[in-house]
Amino acid sequence: MKAASGITSRAHPLWLAYILHRLSGLALALFLPLHLWVLALAMTDPERLDGFLNLTEAGAVKLAEFGLVFLLAVHMFGGLRLMAMEWLPWSTSQKTLAASAAAISFLISLLFFLKAI
Amino acid sequence: MTNDVLKVTIERSADVPDVFEVPAFESQTVLDVVSWIQQNADPTLSYRFACRVGMCGSCAMMVNGVPRWTCRTHINKVLDGNEITIGPLRNLPVIKDLAVDMDPFFDKWVSAEGVHHGTLTRVDPIAPVDEDSAARVEANAGIECINCSVCYAACDTVTGNPEYLGPAALQRAWTLLNDAKDEGRVAILDAVSGSGGCHNCHSMGSCTAYCPNDLDPMSAIAGLKRETAKSFFKRGR
What we know:
The complex is a heterodimer of chains A (117) and B (237).
Chain A: H1 2-8, H2 13-44, H3 46-55, H4 59-87, H5 94-116
Helix pairs in contact in A: 2-3, 2-4, 4-5
Chain B: E1 5-12, E2 16-23, H1 30-41, E3 60-63, E4 66-69, H2 75-78, E5 83-87, E6 94-96, E7 99-100, H3 103-111, H4 134-142, H5 150-154, H6 156-160, H7 167-177, H8 185-192, H9 206-210, H10 217-235
Helix pairs in contact in B: 3-7, 4-7, 7-8, 7-10
């Protein structure tokens, strides 16, 4: 009951925008070392890199790329939203801003997805 | 309403919930329900209220997990079927049952320099206030705070950092910073830029979402972030 009572008061757009920003940031931070390691294979083990590049043809990997672009877009727009909110003296319509940031990032990631398949 | 009996769960201290059956009346507030229990079912139930019209800020409680002013919250708006769970405010020490110790909340109000910093005496003429100035508009936006601690209970940053001054105290600091009659600018900026200050805020917005008076502490805190940053780059503090 204690846990549940904490959760209900978080069910509003700005809190969800907050947690989405944190989680996308964490996920990107975990992805980046892997990403750089794969890129580094170009110097150390080109054949293995080619193996990785062939993987990108697989449907599951394309789906993962969609997720990655989504995370990047959500984190970028979420960050812009935060900076706008804290550095520009805006007082209203922040919820609308948060929602449209998520919508635009979703749109962009969807475009990448459609291009990929 | 179809049900004539409400099933009311009171989260009493030490995680012991008590369930009461309360007759449903028309136009009943959450506070009415709590009062009915105390007057008719369990006289040992402790809770706090005073004005019953949303002015004094004493009766805030967690209602179905959301902090609310119970005297102005109609039971029909928050009932889940015919059930409701009422608990003490979050983020404050519970004294007994539904009564919390508000001391940390008020102490932080003072720590944030939420006090008048005057330089004039009673023999000086009254300082003119330009009602249309941008600063006055900012100040006016926050002066209807009733110190109910709903924002403080809603804030996850307060939960995570006991040092954090919280939305109400910081909004008060922002109001005074914009008040032409207050001369405490440096003291306020110092107070709100410390380890428990405005830069802890993650802009989750729960304060603004649940403020019963529709105030916007989150934007007030954003204002403090801007002013403290400006002060830092201009004066190095």
